[in-house]
């Protein structure tokens, strides 16, 4: 009886813990914790408080087993509330820290925007939006970039004496050019034999001949580029100036690819005519042309049909410039500058370019053209420049002859 009275008169530890939990719940709510973290305590606290109230209302007449069951319920509820409270407090702390970090990031973003003068457009007195500080700065930056694109990047304007930084040795250069030459010869033999073997030999009509020429040139281009890629792959990544093809800054004074392509195309006319006059090649109009000349072989196809003309333009304006400029200007010329002066590398690569066409009668003119292509590439360090000159030179001849033939002119007189 005394123990029961003492139990009834003393403050229950479970009740004190419930009051502590309630106080913590209030502190969390005041600290800015989310309501969802506090609400789960409500039902649990209410049930536990009901059990504690029943324990306090027990008397001596209450059976011992019932009192013990009530005590166990209070103890179990106390432990559950402690675990739930700890977990909820941790979750609340994490979310409070996250919220504080988020507010700090927003504040830092506003301060950064203020420091960089990033402001929204504001309305003027007339209601029209005024130009913001950012818009003015961007406009000024674009104008400066446009002006800088026309000016040299540094004090060295002419680059005709600057060599390339070549990572491979002379052995790699020799093996690569030899492999390309072997592939060039074998492709010239294998493609016609393969076409005959498969029953696709070109007939007498212009369309079949044009398609055969297109297939042959595509095979040459694919094999040649694959050989160059295979021999230079161990040295990748390559320098910025090796095999560079960049269409940006076309009109820059120092290395504008379009600017130097236009000048090089005009210079090529004079250089080819000067070479022909100096060697006497092509000066006799009655002299017969070599039947093996590439242009003589294409005469039956030129202007014969739209398909034939389109095929020839792809061959002369795309495939040939892509392959030949990659081999002779992109690889051979820079490789020679590792041991020779740049001007000597330009001459040797130009002579190799002319010899690869296997037309001895046009060797001086093609060498002169190769020199112009080498000079423009050395200055720009961009394959887009010599490729454009080469494409205009080849396809321009095809287009002019096609127009003449369509108008009833005998184009053999101009060849």
From TrEMBL:
Keyword Transmembrane helix: yes
Origin: domain of life: Eukaryota
InterPro entries in alphabetical order: Rce1/LyrA-like_dom
Residues spanning the membrane: 179-198, 210-231, 257-278, 298-323, 335-356, 387-404
GO molecular-function terms, A-Z: endopeptidase activity
All residue ranges annotated as the CAAX prenyl protease 2/Lysostaphin resistance protein A-like domain in the record: 309-395
Pfam family, one: Rce1-like
Gene Ontology terms: biological process: CAAX-box protein maturation; proteolysis
Alphabetically ordered keywords of this record: Hydrolase, Membrane, Protease, Transmembrane, Transmembrane helix
Protein name: CAAX amino terminal motif-containing protease
